[in-house]
Amino acid sequence: MIKVGVIGAGSWGTALAIQLNAVGQDVTVWSIIEEEVKFLTEKREHIEKLPGVKIDEKIKFTTNLEETIKDKDMLVLAVPSVFTRSTAKNMAPHVRYGQLIVSVAKGIEEATLMTLEEVIREEIPNAEVAVLCGPSHAEEVSRSLPTAVVAGSRKKKVAEFVQSAFMDENFRVYTSPDVLGMELGSSLKNVIALAAGMADGLGYGDNTKAALITRGIAEITRLAVAMGAKPETLQGLTGIGDLIVTCASVHSRNRKAGYLMGQGKTMKEATEEVKMVVEGVYSAKAAALLAEKYNVSMPIVEAVNRVLFEDLPAKEAVRELMIRDKRIEHSDLNFEE
Length: 337
Prior knowledge:
With 337 residues, this protein is α/β, with parallel strands linked by helices.
């Protein structure tokens, strides 16, 4: 048994706390919201975000950040990506040298274009940082439905420690050294999921979604490789796997927000109706800026940005994607003369 502090009591933080408890770990969960801690402690259920899922009495909830961090073998940072830097800054005074922090949010910081692992390393340079990514909706993990994810770290022993901490018969964990590829795949898929949701909202079919998924992973891979990631990573759980589940699932907040925009709602109206942080909205601008920085063509990402921030109707965005110049699918394949 190891002692784990989970920083963030949203749906994902709570689901991972439930999983860690199921493995047999000693789990404490922190939230900045006093009412949330009181409610979760008393009701033992996240009624709004994970209805029907009971939380074991052994899982502790607190608003005391120092208490959540002190003497823990592993910290799981599960706040939304837009709050990663500010939360890491508040954690820093309490983190001991070499203490392990596992980042489980998905996003790229818009102002700096840094991955979340890089943000945490910058704010808490004395910590050991790993990531956990993959196709894993909180609604299913919290109910112990079979799931496979990847633990990523620059160091093999760190990745294997995270793997052992989380893994059981319902939650299979692989390891990878390609942290950059994992984070890019897991973040940028949210932008493609917005496009897939828009297509659903417009009433388009499976053909459209299949095109968005496959061309979407092509865009993500081009950028990731240009930035130094490995193409194999984008063909795995944290690339195509994460993209499929986020584009297709009823649990996906990014797909839902896109669906509402496809039906004619504005980005603001759609995100307010979803009632949770829609990570793809924040990652979309960062993805476009990275594409420009690395001179990579990302037409789907560009189209999503125009819908989000320039009021381009979703239907017109799809039309513009379809009428682009003729292309070969794989530029490194050659025809016979």
